[in-house]
Amino acid sequence: MAEQTPHQNVTFESAGREAHGYLAVPEDGTGPGVIVIQEWWGLTDHIRDIADRLAALGFVALAPDLFGGRVTHDADEAGQMMSELPAEEGARLLAGATDYLLSREDVTSRTVGAIGFCMGGGFVLALAAQQGDKVSAAVPFYGVGQGVPDEYSELTAAVQGHYALQDSMYPADQARAQEEQIRRESGADVVFHFYDADHAFHNDENTAGNYAPEQAKLAWDRATSFLRAHVK
């Protein structure tokens, strides 16, 4: 049986290679599975905290390390690290993470949910489009376009997006066009919410000062309720 340590670093196989991540398990030892996809800063303490918060709500949360242990707080370096991650490599790692999570005996759901921020918001959609009915809920927060698939015909997950009206990195009009494309091509249940905030408004460790507590709480409550409703 899977080890019931509440918080741990884990390794798993991904396309024949070893991958790494951070796993958070509820106190009672079981729950539905959720993939947490990092921002361009790497697998930071903030992303680990997101996994811990999900575990506190009853989810088994896995945050895969897409940058192989690299973490930065410099925007230029973060942009460089993101640019060096091919979309197909990120998708491969996330596919392995999905299979690993679904194989764990402490995961009670037949599907996983996926939630991601910034760069991770794009990869959430890539994962859902790639994995079909293995992913039942996809929650992108202000995705910047990295990893975003060209089309969504294979996506079956319900999608709930969270985007900022003042976001210059991924403007609201682009997000609205993406929402319509997903709905048109997949036929899935798609709802995007828009907030009077800037990029990364949910990150309470954001060095740019964009954190917006009220909007962040509203988005988090919506997102976790959505995951609870759809990940079975």
UniProtKB/TrEMBL annotation:
GO terms for molecular function: carboxymethylenebutenolidase activity. This is Carboxymethylenebutenolidase. The keyword Transmembrane does not apply. Residues 21-230 form the Dienelactone hydrolase domain. It comes from the Bacteria. Keywords: Hydrolase. It holds the Pfam family DLH. It comes from Zhihengliuella flava. InterPro entries: AB_hydrolase_fold, Dienelactn_hydro, Dienelactone_hydrolase-like. Its EC number is 3.1.1.45. The keyword Hydrolase applies.
